[in-house]
Amino acid sequence: MIFLSSGFLLLVGALLIIYYVLPKRFRYLTLLAGSVVFYALAGKRYLPFLGVTIVSVYATARLLGRSQDRQKQYVTEHKKDLSKEALAAYKKGEGKKRTAMFLACLLINLGLLGALKYTGFLLSALRAPWEVHWVLPLGISFYTFQSIGYLIDVKRGKYPPERNFLKYALFASFFPQMIQGPISRCDMLSKTLYEGADFDLDRIGRGLVRIAWGAAKKLIVADRLIRFALPVFGSGYTGSLVLLQMVLYAMRLYADFTGGIDMALGVGELFGVILPENFDRPYLSKSIEEYWTRWHMTMGSWFRDYVFYPLNVSKPFLKWTKALRTRFGNGFLSRLPLYTATLVTWLATGVWHGAGWNYALWGLTNGVVIILSLTLKPLYERFHRRFPGLKATRGYGAFEIVRTFLLMCLIRLWDIYPTPWHVWSAFSSLFVNFRSGVLGSILPELSVGTGDWIVVLAMTALMLFVSLKKGEGSFRTKYLNTSVRLWTAAALLLILTLLLGAYGPGYTASDFIYGQF
User: Fold this and answer.
1) How many angstroms separate the Cα of 132 from the Cα of each of 115, 138, 351, 418, 478?
2) Which of 24, 222, 251, 419 has its CA 20 to 30 A from that of 15?
3) Each residue of 119-153: pLDDT tens digit?
4) In 3-state terms, what secondary structure has residue 425?
5) Number of C-alpha atoms within 13 angstroms, CB side, residue 53?
C-alpha cells in the first residue's frame, strides 16, 4: 500500500473521523489500530516481523529501566554502608548485565534485518549454488533503526522506558512513517503522538496542503521523469547523455523522496502529530558536509548519534588518537581515527540503503569526499584569506551550489549504474567522450512531447520558488496564513495534480523509491 492508493486515502479518511469522535484518552488507540490495519493491508505476512521488533525492544527496554532503577535504589540505600570500591564493582556488574541484554536484543533485530535483506546478496557474492527469495517487510529498515535508537537512548538513561506497551507499539509502527520515514526519536514524537489533539480545521487544512504538495511533486515530476530517465539509462556512455541522466535522476529522486516525506508529515499533521522534518533545501547547499545536514536529516542524525560519535569517542579510538598525536603531532596521521570512524559510518549508511556493492561503494565514496574536504580545509581558508571578498559575492555562492549539486550527482552514479565498471565508463565519458550533439538525436526517442518538458520545468521552477521562500520561514505559515488562502491552495494543488499528474496511457503511478528500504 502506498500513499497514492485509494485504500490508503480511505483509511486516513476513516481514521480521521473516528479519531476526533472518540475521547482524547482513546485517540492514540485509533492511530495504533489504523497502523495495524495499514500494515496488514500492505501484507499480512509482514506483521510477525514487526511484532518481533516491537515485543523484543519493548521488553528489553523495560528490563534495562528496571536494572537502572534497581541500581539507583541499591546505591542510595548502601551509600554509607559500602566502600566506593564495592559500589563501583556493583555498578560494573549491573552494567554488564544491561549490556548483555542490550546486545541480545540488538542481535535479534539487526540479525532479522540482515537475514531478510542481505542473505540473497551474500549468497550471490559467495557464488553459492542455491538462491533464497525471502520476504522483505515494508519499511523494515526504518522501523528497525527507529526502535534501536529508542533502545540505545533508554540504555544511556536519556529517558525512562515507555511503560504502556500499546503506546510503544504505536511509536514503533505509526503508519505514515512506515513507507519511507522519517526516523523519529521517542522523546520528541511522543509529545504529540499520545496526547490526542484538539480538532483544528486550519491545522487539518495545513496537513492537506502538505499532502497535496507532496502528491504534486510525486505525480507531476517524479513519475513523469521515469519516462525521461529510463530510456536514457540504456543508451550508452556519451558524456552528454550521462550528464542528462545525472540531472534527471537528481530531479526525480528529490521530487519522489521529498514528495513522500511531505505526505507523511501532512498525514501526521491531520492528527496533530508532529513528525521531524527530513529535508531543508538540500540542493541549495554549498558543500557536501552542509548537504548531508539538509538531505534525509533523520537518517544522518541517526548514524551520527548512534554510530559515528560512539565509535569516535570509544576507548580504543581515543587511545589510538592519543598515540598518533604523541608521535606525529596534529597532522594528517593523527586524524586517522576520525577518518576511520567517518568511513565506517558511511559504509554502514550505504549498506543500510540496500544489498549490493554499489550501495557500499556509494557510502564509501561519500565518506572519502568528506574526508578530502576536511583535509583540504586549510587550503580553502588560505584561499579565502587571499581573496577576502570573494565568498560574500552572489556569483561565488552560486558556483558553490552548482559545484555541490554536480558532485552529489556524480556520487549518485552508483545509484544509476549496476557495477563499478559501468560507473567508471559513465564517469570517464564526461571527460573523454562528451559528444553534446548526441542529445539532438536521443531526445526525440524518449516518446514524450514538448508539453511534458514544459510541465516538468514549470513544476521544478515552482519547487525552487517554494524552497527559496522557505528560507524566509515556513511557507505555509507566512503565505497561507488565512483559512481562505489555506483551503484555496489545497484545492488548487489538487486540481493541478489531477490535470498534470502522470496518468493515462503509458503512465503508471510508481512506488516511492525509498519504499524499498
Assistant:
1) 10, 18, 19, 21, 53
2) 222
3) 887 877 777 777 777 888 888 999 999 999 999 99
4) helix
5) 28
Residue type present at position 328: F
Residue 38's alpha-carbon distances to 19, 114, 175, 270, 470, in angstroms, are 15, 24, 7, 17, 32
CA distance 471 to 281: 8
Strands (E), 227-349: none
pTM value is 0.91
Phi, psi of 501 (to 5 degrees): -65, 160
Q: Which residues of 42-61 are buried (b: 16+ CB within 10 A; e: fewer)?
A: beeebeebbeebbebbbebb
Are 263 and 210 spatial neighbours (Cβ–Cβ below 8 Å)? yes
86: exposed, middle or buried (Cβ count in 10 Å: 0-12, 13-18, 19+) = exposed
Nearest of 57, 304, 269 to residue 177 by alpha carbon: 269
Handedness of CA 496, 498, 504, 508 (dihedral sign): positive
Residue spans of alpha helices (H) in 329-393: 336-353, 357-375, 377-386
What are the C-alpha distances in Å from 452 to residues 90, 225, 229, 493?
70, 9, 13, 18
Residue found by looking up cell 579510538 in the block:
317
Q: Among 178, 152, 168, which Cα is nearest to 42's?
A: 178
Return the DSSP state at 162: P
Chain centroid, CA 311 distance in Å: 21
**Mean pLDDT value of segment 474-499:** 83
**pLDDT of 330-371, one tens digit each?**
878 888 999 999 999 999 999 998 888 889 999 999 999 999
Closest CA to 144 of 352, 355, 359: 352
Q: Kindly state the helix (H) or strand (E) to which residue 124 belongs, with its residue range.
A: helix 84-125
Q: Which of the residue ranges 82-91, 297-306, 442-451 has the most confident prediction, judged by mean pLDDT?
A: 297-306
| CB-CB neighbours of 183 under 10 Å | 24
User: Rounded to whole angstroms, how far apart are CA atoms 435 and 355?
Assistant: 34
- The answer on pLDDT for 459 being more than 80 is yes
What pLDDT digit, counting tens, does each position of 243-295 carry? 888 998 999 999 999 999 999 999 999 999 999 999 999 999 999 999 999 99
- Exposure string of 356-365, with b = 16+ CB inside 10 Å and e = fewer, is bebbbbbbbb
Indicate the burial class of 193 (C-beta count within 10 angstroms; 0-12, 13-18, 19 or more): buried
Name the DSSP letter for residue 356.
S
Closest to 243 measured CA to CA, from 409, 49, 2, 66: 409
* Euclidean distance between CA atoms 117 and 121, whole angstroms: 8
Per the CB < 8 A criterion, the answer to whether 109 and 148 are in contact is: yes
Residue in the structure block whose three cell numbers are 515552482: 462
Tell the residue number behind the cell numbers 549491573, with chain if given. 94
Count of all residues that appear for the chain in the document:
517
User: What would the mean pLDDT of 190-213 be, rounded to a whole number?
Assistant: 92
Count CB-CB contacts under 10 A for residue 407.
16
